[in-house]
Amino acid sequence: MSEPEKKRLQVEIFGQTYKMVGSESSGHMRLVASMVDDKMRELHSQNASLDTATLAVLAAVNGFHDYLKLKHQVEQMESELKRLKG
């Protein structure tokens, strides 16, 4: 089985250009970059004294927090579905 073709593109996050490589669609990768950029800008608007590295870490922490909450919700729904199927 062949590996999916890697896509390469440049994105801008918080004023910096980054090269992204991935097997997802270019649109998906741009959306992810845009969401990170939005979160960093939101955090910066709340505390303009934070440096870029700190903003990036806080954006990552926020992203993983959201991911874990959603993962827990999915697990609860799957458990409930199994219970209902009996």
TrEMBL record:
Q: Does the keyword Membrane apply?
A: no
Q: Which Gene3D superfamilies match?
A: 6.10.250.790
Domain of life assignment: Bacteria
Q: Name one GO cellular component term.
A: cell septum
Q: What is its main location?
A: cytoplasm
What is said about its interaction partners and assembly?
A: Homodimer. Interacts with FtsZ.
**Name recorded for this polypeptide:** Cell division protein ZapA
